[in-house]
Amino acid sequence: xxxxxxxxxxxxxxxxxxxxxxxxxxxxxxxxxxxxxxxxxxxxxxxxxxxxxxxxxxxxxxxxxxxxxxxxxxxxxxxxxxxxxxxxxxxxxxxxxxxxxxxxxxxxxxxxxxxxxxxxxxxxxxxxxxxxxxxxxxxxxxxxxxxxxxxxxxxxxxxxxxxxxxxxxxxxxxxxxxxxxxxxxxxxxxxxxxxxxxxxxxxxxxxxxxxxxxxxxxxxxxxxxxxxxxxxxxxxxxxxxxxxxxxxxxxxxxxxxxxxxxxxxxxxxxxxxxxxxxxxxxxxxxxxxxxxxxxxxxxxxxxxxxxxxxxxxxxxxxxxxxxxxxxxxxxxxxxxxxxxxxxxxxxxxxxxxxxxxxxxxxxxxxxxxxxxxxxxxxxxxxxxxxxxxxxxxxxxxxxxxxxxxxxxxxxxxxxxxxxxxxxxxxxxxxxxxxxxxxxxxxxxxxxxxxxxxxxxxxxxxxxxxxxxxxxxxxxxxxxxxxxxxxxxx
Amino acid sequence: xxxxxxxxxxxxxxxxxxxxxxxxxxxxxxxxxxxxxxxxxxxxxxxxxxxxxxxxxxxxxxxxxxxxxxxxxxxxxxxxxxxxxxxxxxxxxxxxxxxxxxxxxxxxxxxxxxxxxxxxxxxxxxxxxxxxxxxxxxxxxxxxxxxxxxxxxxxxxxxxxxxxxxxxxxxxxxxxxxxxxxxxxxxxxxxxxxxxxxxxxxxxxxxxxxxxxxxxxxxxxxxxxxxxxxxxxxxxxxxxxxxxxxxxxxxxxxxxxxxxxxxxxxxxxxxxxxxxxxxxxxxxxxxxxxxxxxxxxxxxxxxxxxxxxxxxxxxxxxxxxxxxxxxxxxxxxxxxxxxxxxxxxxxxxxxxxxxxxxxxxxxxxxxxxxxxxxxxxxxxxxxxxxxxxxxxxxxxxxxxxxxxxxxxxxxxxxxxxxxxxxxxxxxxxxxxxxxxxxxxxxxxxxxxxxxxxxxxxxxxxxxxxxxxxxxxxxxxxxxxxxxxxxxxxxxxxxxxxxxxxxxxxxxxx
Lengths: 489, 509
Hints:
The complex is a heterodimer of chains A (489) and B (509).
Chain A: H1 7-32, H2 43-68, E1 72-75, E2 80-83, H3 84-111, H4 117-134, H5 138-156, H6 163-194, H7 199-209, H8 214-230, H9 239-246, H10 249-272, H11 279-302, H12 307-328, H13 331-357, H14 374-377, H15 379-393, H16 399-413, H17 417-442, H18 456-474, H19 477-484
Antiparallel strand pairs in A: 1-2
Chain B: H1 4-20, H2 27-43, H3 46-51, E1 59-67, E2 72-78, H4 80-99, H5 108-127, H6 131-140, H7 142-152, H8 157-190, H9 197-200, H10 207-224, H11 233-240, H12 243-268, H13 270-273, H14 276-299, H15 303-324, H16 327-358, H17 369-372, H18 374-388, H19 394-409, H20 411-436, H21 442-445, H22 452-470, H23 473-490, H24 500-508
Antiparallel strand pairs in B: 1-2
Helix pairs in contact in B: 1-2, 1-5, 2-4, 2-5, 4-5, 4-12, 4-16, 4-22, 4-23, 5-6, 5-7, 5-12, 6-8, 7-8, 8-10, 8-11, 10-12, 11-12, 11-15, 12-15, 12-16, 12-23, 14-15, 14-20, 15-16, 15-19, 15-20, 16-18, 16-19, 16-22, 16-23, 18-20, 18-22, 19-20, 19-22, 23-24
């Protein structure tokens, strides 16, 4: 180890190395070991192995932090930081990747596009997410973001024969590139203001400048545009319904859960870090964005007849809810963001998994009508979907309630009463469209008798998401204390 | 005996879980098991009655940490008022399952599963002494009830079900904000995170904050009661729900609202509760509900809708009694809640009986049922008399006590109560006349009278109606401490030693 790559650096970087190595190895194995399309499902095991190794590395870091009783390990001269926050998000990313890998083979096989590359892309995207959660340097963060986004551009367009998928990929790519442009421009301004790419140094520079400096405002606005695009907050949400609808459903699940969680990690790092001194500027701005996201997301979802689009709009409204935690900004609010993201990943992935299970060769299974009478042919899927939807709506005793609890409490603690009332009332709007799905599944008569797809991976993935959605709702204590120890201050 | 409340709470849940393992292909087994589970759920309530100590407040307490980091605990205890509601829930939970034997033939497993789950939620609401736990149970009731209405209901069931859930949810999320505000204020004062109601009671709230929290709670509870003008979900939900669903809705679910007022709004927010503006608003809304509900009943052509609107009127008495804020009003309100559960439960069951036979709810379709169904007619007569408050039945005791409480506050209030009672008698007697008396049509002449199972459903309710009517003393005694405590918290010393209801009860007999 040299001075440019110390053992601490290595220790911090191991998870990313493992993810990248396994990602590339999977691509090679696909090519060398499993030339037959039928054998490609064995690649799932390699992905799982890679994720288990990564999990081991993360666990060593977590263990190290708790044994040494330190808050963080910094590596590469402040470029990467492993703290509770980074680890918390990385656990979420691992879970999301594992779930997506488990369900992808069946879905893509049915869709006729089961290529081994998908597994490499999942792992590489996860590698990008690692840098988004652990990065404390503009360059690192940007590279992480682009690594993740590039993988997603490809994955969204994975169904080559499907025009919707192609359209979604192009749309996502163009708008994504556009927003990255804004982000980079903002970064360049930040660099210009501070002469450094390190978040800590930028924060100090901005603190000394004061909030009303026009250059600070310029940086804030451009960076915000890029970040809000990534979390699909209104008014930068246009891409989301199309991308969610067109992408293979398993990728949609990954996009809605993994990509959004990583983007929130990034957003929190920025707003709680370098942009924290100009809170008085961005707080009203984000409040408007949050309310707009909840409004547009919830009201647009009401009229959707495609379940994936409906869930896409609901995920826009969830972005609004999560932003509220940041707007409150106290410890409860930040804890709320963490808990909400954790909960959101499981419940939203679960809901998309059920949609994915309905896919057949000749039928997309994405329309509300395709779910009609689901309870009669696959009661298990229907009841799981009910749990996910209740959780998305925030009804106890499901996990979604715990997420909303912290958000609402933080708003009350910080005196944002109007926001609190708006946020709570939208729960009642949300229940309306979530219950359109429930109505279709439980009350409409069964029209299509062909059985829903099933596979070991799907069952496992549904078991995990369903169990977590209930467990976090009924006994949240361990998850809350984990989040409590992962606060970003 | 240490975990008796947990046993009462979870017996239906165990029944529900076991139900999941009975194959759907065996309808008889499912029905039988559901009835056994329902009956067991009622039986386990009985030890509570005998072991209850009238000289103590909250008893059978259980407290286990649930989410320590936010101060929520699994905290159960009941006082006399809650005891009555718990036993009523146990009884009606079982009776509604029994009453469904012949009425429901499709998707039995889900149907009975919903009822058992519903019972867990309702029991939990009345037992919880932890505000967050209370909220969880409060919301737990929603989904099973949605399904009961939406799957097994009448023609407009889907609309009625979603309306029910949205109304209730709007109320309950605002209530949640109130709970959180109270919780945070308590934390600020004591630096302790706790949802324990007994601890929250120590919080010193300034009147302004109380005012806001009161209205946040108000929305949640008033939708549930339902108070005018938040009542519009009720006629739809009650009319479209299957018979047993209407029974549970009217008899138990509505009581969750009045229970909320008595258990949380009054004791936790006494300054807001005795604020003259609040009292005036509550009284006006209650009186509108009493009179308007009764007038709408007079106009109804639909038998079930008539009964549904009568709940609006009757619950108006209950809320008026609560906001009289004196012992007679509150005791009368509590008793009237039980009475309403019994008599309106019976009235809905009665509609169910004829609906099962004729599949119509139009009042005009019926007439002269006395000839073909004499036993049924007697049952209906008693239920109607009990509902309109005729001595010696239960409704009389409740209404006269509320009347006394209302009279102590204002002559106007008392006048409204009297008007409501008169109108109540009018629409019920008229309903009775139109359906039971007169010429019998060919279709109605062939109707079969009540069978043994149906009599078994009505018998306990009839007995209770008569018991409360003739000898209400034990009921007042059980509620005594609850009433005194609430009144003491709201108006300290104002009514010391004035245990009107007991004296009233002993005077009558």
